[in-house]
Amino acid sequence: MLLRSGDLESAESRFRARLINSASGVRSAVLIGTKSIKGTENLAIFSTVFHVGANPPLIGFLMRPVNRVRHTYENISKTGFFTVNHIPYSARAAAHQTAAQYPEHRSEFEACGFSPEYIEDFFAPFCAESPVRSGCSIEYETEIPANGTRLMVGRILWLDVADGLTAPDGFIDLAKAETAAVSGLDGYHKVGRPERYSYPEPERKPKILKP
Amino acid sequence: MLLRSGDLESAESRFRARLINSASGVRSAVLIGTKSIKGTENLAIFSTVFHVGANPPLIGFLMRPVNRVRHTYENISKTGFFTVNHIPYSARAAAHQTAAQYPEHRSEFEACGFSPEYIEDFFAPFCAESPVRSGCSIEYETEIPANGTRLMVGRILWLDVADGLTAPDGFIDLAKAETAAVSGLDGYHKVGRPERYSYPEPERKPKILKP
User: Is the peptide bond before B211 cis (omega within 30 degrees of 0)?
Assistant: First the structure.
């Protein structure tokens, strides 16, 4: 099925949203944890999280210019801190539910059944159920002019990984962690066992690394 | 395992790179296809592709400020066009190999065993082996000051999805497409069947959508 510009423009808007969203592929699903200056905890699902750099350790995500994510944006803007929590596949329905438009005073931790916890001297709550979680300070943000989406880049101040997931060389096994991946607007996936390959060099076939 | 800023700073650099890269989660692996003004075709693997918007249809990726991706960046800067090709899981080793530092005149399509094809009136080659592929014009780019990484945003001019993968509502089944997901610097994963959930509303449990 080949769709050109004109076909995409004339497509029904929700069909186009599902199609174009799917076309970016399978991504990690994370819950972003924040707290307002009034003390209300917030938890919201995001599917556009990506690696920005390791030194300094940076992680980025995109924020749509829509109502439903306003609490997360306001909390980050005003307090400077957030957590990134990978979602257990078993908690996919509850994580999806954090995208519902709850009133400002209502915590999605409580409404959706997640447990807020804190690391000493860090303002934002993390998700106790998450096997891979990190705490960040906002480092940089900018607007993408074409549609007003905001790029948010955080500096990782701490990283907490459940026992038994990290290889001696630093690789985290996210299949063993049983985290969820997401596709389109509403599809949740398990991921299979990782197969790792050696550093690529020209004219030499990559070897499979032993687990 | 809790690592704080100081632990991350003092970690061995390759360990830190693998760890922080893994911490952003499982992502889609794509091959970006370009062509130089001299006519040399280029194909390179990227793991930081994300959805930016559906109207207009936009897709983004990050480009590290390193040698190995310079051909892709130069080609996009000078010609304005690129393709985004999802990777069949069966071609993961060949796709990984496109990251090797081939000389400028050498096409990774040829070196790694992929077939370049063209859509009428579109400059950049796509990958015939890819079940989900799109053609883009560069719409916006900006540098992330913290580490010189470049954010590239493309406008999707065409989208081509293999038959039998798109649901009537626009959702593309990437598990059926057997595309690869990636984690860390070198881990490749299959993804399981998607489970889809209904639009989230407060105080109502999301329902599983029938496939």
Answer: no
